Amino acid sequence: MPFRIPFKKSKTKSGSPERNGVVTLTKVEQLIESKLTENDFYEIELVEVLETFLKPTVEQESETSDYSYVGAVRGRYVLSEQGKPFNECGVFRPLNPNINVVPIKHELVLGIKLNGEHFYMSPLNVFGNPTYNIQPNVSDIKSKNKIVDLRPFERIDDPRKLAPYEGDVIIEGRYNNSIRLGSYQYNQHRESANIKLVAGHLYWGDSEDPQKSFARKDGRVESPVIEDIDADGASIYLTTNERLKFTPARESEVEGCAPPFQGKHILLNSKRITLNTPAQGSITMMSSKNISLSAVEMVVLETPSFRIGRHTADQPQVLGQILVDKIQALVDAIGNVVGIPTPTGPTAGPINTAPSWPAVDAAMAQIKDCLSTKHLIDE
Questions:
Q1: pLDDT tens profile 40-86
Q2: How far apart (Å, rounded) are the C-alpha atoms in residues 262 and 267?
Q3: Do residue 59 and residue 162 come from a single domain?
Q4: Do 359 and 330 belong to one domain?
């Protein structure tokens, strides 16, 4: 049966308020009462979704297109419109203009009519499955055996809901993605607000502490899943008073950048993280203590110019190999000098033939040892 929400007229001797004079709260209430009758009510009834309006069709796309219907659905009331032709069924807009769960064809939603317009509320939780809750043709029993095309939303036999903790506010999508507005109080940590955003629960498989030890094949729903930083596809954690357990790609030894990772913390974790600022934007990183960049292979800074210290730095950096080559060329040139005046006359051969010259070659070899084999700089 439909749900009826009646608004009955209160018994009062005050009657309708005067049209002139000062407007008071009492007069407003009297006006509302005078407009309501015993038969006024809003009716909430189950609606089967027949199609969703994601965008206007090519034929409808024009300067006069009504985009206020994007996210709306065409639906049929399950009881009062049983078997009603498709083209006679009404269009339902989302009741909430800010947060909307776009239903899938043949899902059931709660429909309501207000001020002559139809609205719908979130899909009905029929199976407790965040991906699949459809009931095909319940609003048209005669078509019950009609083949229904549900692509791309195939039924998933082992859906995983996000496990809640007491007091949590959870937003959960159809695609193993979620936002948890919670805390760490369940682990005896007071004042421990956190926000956890995850895309792809257990994308990389279970961790060392498996959350899914077996798969049910009898149609029952799998046990709820808990966020796992190492196993989930992509995560953003904002925490205030809890210890984050994850596996760093490489641990830093810089003070304040090494484990344990606890307290107020923001963690981004995924296979790839990209920060981009188009239109001549900038990226700023500031720290009251230290900044650590750690990589297993290499760190590359690609830039036409690079300054260390301050943005006003004006001392040029030294190119190690070029400097060594220049020094070697200078030493070779000096070693080839001949005819140096001496008390006994000019020298007959070059300087590098002197008995003490090997000491110069040894010193030059030590200069070459100063070149790093790991840390390089562009010309």
A1: 556 899 999 999 988 765 445 555 567 788 889 999 999 999 999 99
A2: 11
A3: no
A4: yes
**N-to-C CA span, the chain:** 79
One-letter amino acid identity for 331?
Answer: V
Residue 117 and residue 175 share a domain? no
In a domain, 22, yes or no: no
Tokens of 143: 């078509």
pLDDT, tens digit, 9 for 90 and up, residues 284-326: 999 999 999 999 999 998 988 888 888 899 988 899 999 999 9
- For the chain, count helices (H), then strands (E): 3, 11
Cβ atoms < 10 Å from Cβ of 98: 5
pTM, rounded to two decimals: 0.75
- Does one domain contain both 63 and 94? yes
Q: Which helix (H) or strand (E) is 113 found in, with range?
A: strand 108-114
| Residue 346 belongs to domain spanning | 320-368
Domains of the chain: total:
3
Q: 96 to each of 45, 71, 91, 119, how far by Cα in Å?
A: 17, 11, 15, 9
Asked whether 118 and 112 are in contact (CB, 8 A), the reply is yes
Query: Is residue 192 in a domain?
Result: yes
Residue that finishes a domain, picked among 108, 143, 178: 143
Read off the amino acid at residue 210.
P
Question: Do 183 and 272 fall within a single domain?
Answer: yes
CA distance 73 to 94: 8
Instruction: List CB contacts of 368: < 8 A, sequence separation 6 or more.
Output: 324
Q: Specify the DSSP class assigned to residue 272.
A: -
